[in-house]
Every structure is written in structure tokens, then in C-alpha cells.
Amino acid sequence: MVNFQPGKTVTTFTDKQGREIVICYPQWEDLEKITKFINEISQEQTFIRYAGEVITLEEESAWLKDVLEKSEAGEYVLLLAFHNDQLVGNVSIQRDHSSARRSLHVGIFGIALRQEFRGAGIGFGLAKAAMSEAEQALKGLRLFRLNVYVLNDRGQQLYRKLGFQEVGRLPEYVLHKGEYIDEIVMVKQVDLNN
Hints:
- Helix content is about 30%, strand content about 35%.
- By secondary structure, it is of the alpha+beta class.
- The chain has a domain at about 10-140: 3-Layer(aba) Sandwich (Aminopeptidase).
- An eight-stranded mixed sheet has the order 1-2-3-4-5-6-8-7, with helices on both faces.
- Strand 7 and strand 8 form a beta hairpin.
- The chain is globular.
């Protein structure tokens, strides 16, 4: 059974700074906040796929429509983290369609947090909630996979804390701030006993 319900709260917790964090599924009403969030992270040129691009409201609307449809179909989990109605982070896990049916048991993991909310335990709480939801929503899921830039030490620490293990490196795979850097591939087995 798919747990997805637009706007549904999955969990709440208090971060290390004493801030209340609400983790929920996205809804159409979040579109402007999501667009603002991704554009702020993009301008920061941190360790996500966007590096200074500006994403329009129309582009983000098309993306959100696709995410909501895939979430309804049990193909995608997107969770948002809010503090005082401000979007402070998101995490996604989507089925890997790169090898057609052969890789549908793999969930591709991605996460982003506002700079001022990093290092406070929000990423860990958000990731744990998303993996739990994905284990229920993405039927047949057996493996989580992510790619992380070699320079992203904080991200690597978080992923290891979550149980991910490095399984390989793609040399000079990413152009980051004018430099070609390695990307690390990490995986985590889904606990099939749950």
C-alpha cells in the first residue's frame, strides 16, 4: 500500500539546535517554497546537480507534477522538512529506471538542506524517514544507491552513519567549481526482515 498523501505529516522531531522540524509529503501548495529552496541551493553551488542555474516556476511545476504522479504510483518518495513553515530540506528516493526492469529494485537517494540547517541532525532524521517510507511505498526495493562528491565530507559522514558503504569511484566524473572531481558511489541494503 502506498503511504503517499499530499501534505501528510510523516514525523516531527527537534533538531540539535532545539528547532521543531516537520517532515511531510509535498503538495501543490508547496510549489513556490520548493522553487525558492532549489534556487537558493543552486546559487550556493554546493554538492547538488544544480550549479548556479535558475529554475523557473514553470519548470518546477512540471517537475512537481511528475513527482506527485510517480509518488501516487509508488515509484517515488519525496519528503520535505519544514521549520516554522520554512522549507529547510528535502530528500528523494526514486526507482532506478536506467536499466528498464532490471534495476527497479534500486532506490536512487538524494538530499539537500539549507546551509543554516546543516549539521543539526535534520539530514539524518529526514533520510531515515524517507528510507522507511520508501521501503513501504516502493514495492520490491532491495537497495539504496547514491552518488556523493569526493569533496563532500559532511555528506559522506551522514551516509556512513545511515549505513551506506562506498562501492566505487567515478574518476573526474563531476565538474565542480571549475575542477573535475571524483564521485563516490555508495549503497545500503534494504532490511528485508522489516
